[in-house]
Amino acid sequence: xxxxxxxxxxxxxxxxxxxxxxxxxxxxxxxxxxxxxxxxxxxxxxxxxxxxxxxxxxxxxxxxxxxxxxxxxxxxxxxxxxxxxxxxxxxxxxxxxxxxxxxxxxxxxxxxxxxxxxxxxxxxxxxxxxxxxxxxxxxxxxxxxxxxxxxxxxxxxxxxxxxxxxxxxxxxxxxxxxxxxxxxxxxxxxxxxxxxxxxx
Length: 200
Ligand SMILES: Cc1ncc(C[n+]2csc(CCOP(=O)(O)OP(=O)(O)O)c2C)c(N)n1
Ligand SMILES: [Mg+2]
What we know:
Layout: H1 10-18, E1 25-28, H2 32-39, E2 46-48, H3 56-66, E3 72-77, H4 78-83, H5 85-94, E4 99-105, E5 108-109, E6 115-116, H6 125-132, E7 137-140, H7 143-154, E8 162-167, H8 182-194
Parallel strand pairs: 1-2, 1-3, 3-4, 4-8, 7-8
Antiparallel strand pairs: 5-6
Magnesium ion (MG) binds near residues 77, 78, 79 and 109.
């Protein structure tokens, strides 16, 4: 069996996407995706989902439905996506045009010690996304392919429901720890979105 080693580095991928995010709301899954987003600079329109593995896409779906005028970008690990796999079907059924999902697929559970995970053992998340009804579902393995998909992910009004899984390597990236206080993150995000109405 041949072993494919991805040439993409997760921080480069997340940096390239976030540099073009505009005013997109970004929701990141626990562990490394949170660190990747933080490494590009903390912002009140970032929401770091600490601990609730499998909950990031459902949270991003709720946000996209509640804020149809804003692009919502969910950045998730492959392990996180596997745990919340059913949420992809719910997203496809709801079909929010302003939601993009990016899987940072290192084929491992890096956060807990780099155990091998499903996507390195034959599970094809893009095929799953297509099967549940995503019209735009793409695999990315190279920087040229990434460049080709960024506009789809952060494109503005009216946007398009999109799923992109990016194969990245497993080399460690420097720690960039976001705030971990849940009530603080929630209030900061709500105030950014709703202003004074956040307190009603
Ligand atoms: C329900 C549940 N099971 C297990 C964990 C432990 N856990 C935290 S992060 C993680 C791995 C996440 O892997 P992935 O989403 O692929 O992110 P990576 O670190 O590889 O980028 C696991 C198993 C958890 N937080 N919650
Ligand atoms: Mg992973």
